[in-house]
Specification:
alpha+beta, 5-stranded antiparallel beta sheet, 3-stranded antiparallel beta sheet
């Protein structure tokens, strides 16, 4: 998830903690230390981006990012270490200020642990994935449930994360989805849902009873997640049913789903399958309400240029499922690159839907949204090999 969501979760956890509620009113230092610790611990696992210079594994910055973002710091063991550090920093932070009693790191540790672990859980909600059980179990886990930036979650978390919310905060949260609408990420109907949720958040903020506000606020968060979980399950079953009927000879390797921001009715689909001769990958859009939002119109940003050598889709579309583009690669070429290219082998530790072009570049079709390649597209030639690889199990396997 984005760091704004992580920060809101951290602040919400701090303000919901029993120690904050019972003791914080008479101890401003405790309040500040808990909010600081909650926000810091909720974002600390993303510090892996800054570790590149300390752990230079070779292969270049881009490959390092793919292999190690959401890496060791996004494991339960890594989160435990980070929680201890954040609790210590929170105790140090509590020394600043004139009013209240200094807070010990032990008092902040439970909050720091919950915030660090919830960072991993929140990151598991989307299509990027995490591997929290490494080094004991190195499989990736994918939620395929929430877009990485979800305005409905922001709205639900605001009453929990702030004691008093200034009008400009609501104005800012309300303005960001307009930018998404202008760029084709958010359809007009989703804007109405987001503003409706923002209105409910403002009404909830005015509730004077803290216990009621906390209960209703967390219920709103769970409800948002629940809606996306249910809608995602329906979308997945529809796509599976369609593919089993229209492409019965293909062995399914991956089926990736991601909703639009604030829009549980429209889902981006990236499908990967194989035959004895080919690897076949498709990008499409599924709509759960095709009469209201036809699939061809509910997620405009899917229709972009690609670095992958894509072609016109071979499967027919309808109002509920629109296939946008398709990649076909020879199975023999995939096997050759897997045996001969050290950089392709490294990419496979991350890529859920790998593509390649002319043996010169390769990437992950999930994030291939530019003719020159995005952050998940690498050069295979003329670059050094990584000196070591993380233990993650490659998510894309043709022997399934």
């Amino acid at each position: 998830m984005d760091n704004l969501t992580h920060s809101l979760i951290g602040a919400a956890l701090a303000r919901s903690a029993p120690r904050f509620i019972k003791q914080g009113r008479n101890n401003p230092r405790l309040q500040r230390a808990m909010i600081f610790t909650g926000i810091l611990a909720s974002n600390a696992p993303d510090g892996d981006i800054a570790l590149e210079r300390l752990f230079d594994i070779g292969g270049g910055r881009q490959l390092y990012y793919l292999l190690h973002h959401r890496g060791y710091t996004h494991t339960l063991l890594g989160a435990l270490v980070l929680a201890l550090v954040c609790a210590g920093l929170g105790a140090l932070f509590s020394r600043f200020g004139r009013r209240g009693v200094t807070v010990s790191w032990r008092a902040l540790l439970p909050l720091s642990l919950v915030a660090s672990f919830l960072h991993i859980l929140a990151d598991s909600w989307n299509e990027y994935g995490v591997h929290p059980l490494s080094p004991f179990y190195n499989q990736w886990f994918y939620g395929d449930t929430i877009f990485i930036v979800e305005p409905l979650l922001w709205c639900a978390l605001i009453p929990l994360a702030f004691g008093k919310v200034r009008p400009w905060i609501y104005a800012l949260v309300g303005f960001i989805p307009i930018l998404g609408w202008a760029r084709g990420y958010v359809p007009g109907i989703a804007l109405s849902w987001i503003y409706g949720m923002l209105f409910l958040a403002r009404a909830l903020q005015s509730t004077r009873l803290r216990a009621r506000r906390l209960a209703l606020g967390w219920l709103a968060v769970v409800s948002v997640l629940g809606v996306f979980v249910v809608c995602g399950s329906i979308a997945r079953e529809r796509v599976r049913s369609f593919l089993s009927t229209q492409a019965p000879g293909e062995r399914r390797a991956q089926l990736v789903l991601s909703p639009g921001p604030g829009n549980p009715l429209c889902w981006r689909v990236v499908s990967a399958a194989a035959t004895d001769l080919e690897v076949i990958e498709r990008i499409g859009v599924v709509s759960l309400a095709p009469e209201l939002l036809p699939a061809a119109h509910c997620m405009e940003r899917v229709r972009t240029e690609h670095a992958a050598p894509v072609q016109t889709p071979t499967l027919a579309s309808d109002r509920g499922l629109d296939w946008v583009t398709e990649f076909r690669g020879k199975r023999a070429e995939f096997d050759r690159l897997s045996a001969e290219s050290c950089r392709f082998v490294a990419l496979l530790r991350y890529a859920r839907v790998p593509f390649w072009r002319d043996g010169s570049i390769a990437g992950d079709l999930r994030y291939d949204r530019d003719r020159d390649g995005g952050f998940a597209t690498i050069r295979l030639n003329g670059e050094e090999c990584p000196r070591s690889l993380p233990p993650w199990t490659p998510p894309f396997r043709l022997d399934r």
